[in-house]
Write a structure and sequence with these properties.
178 residues, alpha/beta, five-stranded parallel β-sheet, 7 helices, 5 strands, 13% strand, globular
């Protein structure tokens, strides 16, 4: 699998984007960035208060992630975790480099809610899970990416993601071994 790809690990809160993203980056030997680290303080405060972000809140955040991709990820590949819930958000990230692919982590709501509730020290409350699911536009057939179920251990999820990425063909990457 080519490490030239920029992999965006996406999905609603609680799916394991950070854990799986780190593990994917380690397995591929590429840089990793946690998308939450790019949120301005106002976004974090808003989410901490239980208020969902709107598009106006998300555009600068997505642009900051895009700048990181442009500066660090376009030469040798990278992995970044970001909810990227809407097609327009993914299009904005993909505009940075055509080698961007998505790993959409998905699973049953009760499992995701249970994992969110078990997290310690995260600003995203479980009360925002409904808004996350309401906003989510799943990957479409014409978007380069794979859908990976989040049941099982982080290692199992990461292995499923790596296997799915190995089989992914994109216009920029027509050979499965790349």
């Amino acid at each position: 699998m080519s490490t030239q790809r920029v992999i965006v690990v996406m999905g609603v809160a609680g799916t394991g984007k950070t854990t799986v993203g780190r593990m994917l980056a380690e397995a591929l030997g590429v840089p990793y960035a946690e998308g939450d680290a790019f949120h301005p303080a106002a976004n974090v405060a808003k989410m901490s208060a239980g208020t969902p972000l709107d598009d106006a809140d998300r555009w600068p955040w997505l642009d900051a992630i895009g700048a990181w991709i442009r500066n660090r990820g376009t030469g040798r590949g990278a992995v970044v975790s970001a909810s990227a819930l809407k097609r327009a958000y993914r299009d904005r990230l993909r505009a940075v480099t055509p080698r961007t692919v998505f790993v959409h982590l998905t699973g049953e709501r009760p499992l995701i809610e249970e994992r969110m509730a078990a997290r310690k020290g995260h600003f995203m409350p479980t009360t925002l899970l409904d808004s996350q699911f309401a906003t989510l536009e799943p990957l479409q057939e014409d978007e380069p990416g794979v859908v990976v179920d989040v049941s099982g251990s982080p290692q199992e999820i990461t292995e499923r993601a790596l296997a799915a990425l190995r089989g992914l063909r994109t216009p920029e990457n027509q050979h499965p071994e790349n």
